[in-house]
Amino acid sequence: MMVITGAGISAESGIPTFRGQDGLWQNYSVMDLATPQAFAANPELVWAFYNWRRNLISQIKENPAHQALVILEESLPDFTLVTQNVDGLHQRAGSKNLIEIHGNLWRVKCSKCHQRYIDMSVDMGTLPLCKCGGLLRPDVVWFGENLDHQLLQRTEEIAQKCDVLLVIGTSCSVYPMAAIPMLAKNRGAFVAEINIEETPLTANIDITITGKAGEITPLLVK
Ligand code: BV8
Ligand code: ZN
């Protein structure tokens, strides 16, 4: 079994989605902030955005959907969870076989020596520096940046061999991840989605369960 999750699975924890009406941050679009160009032009603004998210996530809890996926993983012989989220909630809930395909905002990497490490501070200041003096950045995949090649390859392999794929809380609008569900479908997987609204997948997959991830996922797992 393979599960793919997006921002919708964290919505009931209180983290705004990227495309919801609540939007993510004041009147900036993530597309303006989650890019290497934005970071080069205005690192303080981009760090203010990520510190705002760190602060928000540190105050909220993972929800029944995250927890249900941990139970599902424990009850199946072969289970992989691929998340597009960078909030770290799946890890916090206890998911083990987890691929964080777009990185994790609790990990930072140095623009100079490329060292990566976890830093759980809720506010890293406007221009956090590495021990080597280089400017630190969130270790997430920004728009226009390539995904980690190994992780993407592993994700494609699993999509091609899984029997069942469950897609939860993603608008399937960000590539290359958006193409993964149909890759599984075209290789014979049974594909289901849980979402509060239709997505580009809805017309092409086996089952769409319309509802909130925090309510549906635990029922499905039971
Ligand atoms: C790449 C980390 C090669 C950052 C993220 C033009 C120029 C440059 C690139 C492009 C371009 N045109 C297209 C591209 C490619 C681009 C892309 O796909 N753009 C889209 C917008 C068209 N992709 C990339 O740039 C990727 N890299 O392609 O490299 C390359 C190199 C150079 C030039 C070109 C290509 C990198 C993509 C990764 C970006 N990083 N995150 C951070 O988060 O800080 S993506 C970020 O947005 C999230 O991680 C997530 O993946 C995505 C949001 O998607 P969702 O998770 O689906 O969330 P969304 O809000 O959209 O939807 C929520 C869903 O939940 C909805 O369906 C809603 O109905 C549902 N929902 C809500 N509540 C609930 C619910 N469901 C259930 N229960 C609920 N309660
Ligand atoms: Zn460094």
Secondary structure tally: strands: 9
Can you tell me the CATH superfamily? TPP-binding domain
Task: Profile the largest sheet.
Answer: 6 strands, parallel
In sequence order, what are the helices and strands, one letter per element? EHHHHHEHEEEEHEHEEH
Count of folded domains: 1
Average pLDDT, rounded to a whole number, is: 95
CATH topology: Rossmann fold
Strand content: 15-25%
Q: What fraction, in percent, of the residue positions are helical? A: 25-40%
Strand order of the largest sheet: 3-2-1-7-8-9
Unreliably modeled segments: none
A few lines on this structure:
The protein is α/β, with parallel strands linked by helices and 222 residues long.
Question: Secondary-structure blueprint of this entry?
Answer:
Blueprint: E1 2-5, H1 8-11, H2 30-33, H3 36-41, H4 43-58, H5 64-75, E2 80-83, H6 89-93, E3 98-100, E4 103-110, E5 116-118, E6 136-140, H7 149-161, E7 164-168, H8 180-186, E8 190-195, E9 207-210, H9 213-221
Parallel strand pairs: 1-2, 1-7, 2-3, 7-8, 8-9
Antiparallel strand pairs: 4-5, 4-6
The structure holds ligand BV8 and zinc ion.
Ligand BV8 binds next to helix 1 and strand 8.
Write a structural description.
By secondary structure, this protein is an alpha/beta fold. The chain has a single domain (about 1-220), classed as 3-Layer(aba) Sandwich (Rossmann fold). Helices cover about 35% and strands about 20% of the residues. It has helices spanning about 10, 30-35, 35-40, 45-60, 65-75, 90-95, 150-160, 180-185, 215-220, and strands at about 1-5, 80-85, 100, 105-110, 115-120, 135-140, 165-170, 190-195, 205-210. The strands form 2 sheets. A 6-stranded parallel sheet has the order 3-2-1-7-8-9, sandwiched between helices. It has a 3-stranded antiparallel sheet with strand order 5-4-6, covered by helices on one side. Helix 8 (about 180-185) links the parallel strand 7 and strand 8 (about 190-195). Helix 5 packs parallel to helix 9 (about 215-220). The chain is globular. The protein starts with a strand and ends with a helix. The structure holds ligand BV8 and zinc ion (ZN). Ligand BV8 binds near residues 6, 17, 18, 86 and 174.
